[in-house]
Each structure stands twice: as C-alpha cells, then as structure tokens.
Amino acid sequence: MEERIYWLGWQYLLPGSGKRIWSLVEYFGSVKAAWEADAKDLSGAPGAGAEWSAGLSRRKAGLDLDSLVAKLESLGITFICHNESGYPEKLRSIFDPPPVIFMRGCLKSADNLAVAVVGARKPSPYGQLVAEKLAKDLAAVGITVVSGMARGIDTFAHKGALAGCGRTIAVLGCGPDVVYPRENKKIMERIMDNGAVVSEFPPGALPEAWHFPARNRIISGLSLGTVVVEAGERSGALITADFALEQGRDVMAVPGNVVNPLSRGPHRLIKQGARLVEGAGDILDELGMDKLFPLPDSIEEGAVKMSKEEETLYRLLSLEPVSLDELIRQSGLVPQKAIAALMYLEIKGLTRQHPGKSYTRTGRNMV
Fold first, then answer.
1. Residue 12, domain extent
2. Which intervals hold domain Smf/DprA SLOG (predicted)?
C-alpha cells in the first residue's frame, strides 16, 4: 500500500492535530509503522496515555483506507500529502504544516504569490468596501487572494478577487464538502472554478469552534503576507496575524474610524509595527512586488459621466454610510430627484445602497 494512504488515514483520525501526527511518525520511524502500531505500542509515544491509545486504536481499526480513497473520488475531492509536488511550498515551510490537505478545485504554481485578506465577521460598510477593493486590485495584477470564506470580510475578499478575474483560495474550518456559512454556496462554487477550497479536515467534518484557530495558521501559511481589515480586540483575524508573524510573514492592517470598536485590532497591529495599508499598492510595496506587479491607473471620477444632480450627491458620499434624508438635506434636491440620481449612480457602479436607505461610494475610485 502506498505511503500516502497511511498519511491519509492519520489525517482522518487526527484532523487539525498535525503536531500529534508528526510526533507519532517521528517516534515510530515511518508513517506506516505508526499506523501498524497497536494500542500498547502507541501508549509509549510522547504525550500518549493508555486510554487515548486504546481509543485511537479502536477508531483506526474501523477505518478502511481504500474506502476512504473511493469516497474522496466520489465527492470530487483530491488530497495532497506534504511530501508531494503539488503541496504548497509556503505551507510546507511552516512549523506545523498539515500532513495532508483536502482540496476541491486546483492549486497552481501562481498561487505561491498569495496575500491573505481577513477581518471581522460583522464588518461596517467601510470594511466591506475596502476588503473587496483590495482583493479586486490584487487579483487583477495576478496575486492570489487567500481567506477563510467566513461571513464578513472573508466573503468580500473572495468576491473582490473573483470580480478582479483572479484566483482565490478559501481555507475552511470544516470538511471541503461542507458549505459554511450556507449562504456562501454559490461563491464556494465560483472559488472552485477560479482557485481552490482547501481544508485539513476530512469530508463531513462540521465547523466546530476549535477548528478555526487551526485553520488560521493555514491561511497565513499559504500567504506572503496577511492584511487585517477591521477586527475586534479578540478577533480570529488577529490570531491569523499572530501566526503570520510566527511564520516570518508580513503583517499589514487597514486603519479605520477611531470610534469603531472594529478598528481596535488593526490599530493595535499598526502601533506594533504592521504596515498601514490604504490601497493595494501599499501591500505590493511591503512585499517588494510593486515593480513586478504595477497597478493600473485608478479610474478618475471624470471617466464616468454624471448629471449635475448625480455629481452633487456623489461628492457628499464617502465610504461611511450616509442616510437618504441626510443626502436630501445636504444636497437641497427634492426627494424624487435625489432618489432617481442615487439609482443611476448605483447602476453606474459608483454607489451602493445599504439597509436603512443609507448609501456609500463603492470604493471604485479609491486610491
């Protein structure tokens, strides 16, 4: 039986526990010897007790490795072992890489040039726009965008990369066949067509809370650097940033409104020395790639024709939401004309409407 099948078996038995797998293989001398060890032998391994070893042996005996391979094939899921050529080089070099990763879609050599964009699960409209814009601009010049497909910043990062006609990788805290959150089913399908969905958790694994910190080390491990867009003081995005630092990768952060609690995480990182990011150019510069991947000139406001009413309203907008009533008051326009002008601005891709009839710029012209 091929060695890779034994690696697969261990990944099924101990998902998210790469350190334990590496320890067992080192103790027994090979992955095959570790797999063939009985409960008594396992109990002698570092950190293993009799009860744990007995339970592991029972679970191991219940696994048919050939059936696991057949199941993966039926689900359209591939698996790559750490010692195989398709395994991402940057991930292989971290302290505790997963011995096996499961994948839907495909990884390419171009994905070695990747940047993680992560942040809050309930971001402000400002955070949504910035994450989407950064990812779109990075993808447009050939940088792969990595994130975790969670609600919020992760989702907008993936959307931005897809809008930029580029590649994106989603790292899951569940099995690669599990859609979480469920509303991301369509975007997950698009990611598989334009990148990859990867996980160290086997098919069917549910998104348990402890999976996500483990998942975060893979997000940063796949990337040259990590950009944090809005995060609370105890955000999972900051865990990803900590992993990035431990892995010797760059950490960057987008500043925000000082009264917004979601600015505390990025601002703390900036105080600690993280690169302040105002646009994709800052990310490329930090990574020393600005000359290799020059950004196209940003679209000027004048490139899109606007009526007098549209221009008046556009200049009142920013990346922070402004209510319809406030726009009517500041512009002096009658409600019917203001609503019509805002509708045309939205059609032209210059504004976005949010719940409660508030509006922001799309970030399209953001430097």
1. 3-75
2. 79-287
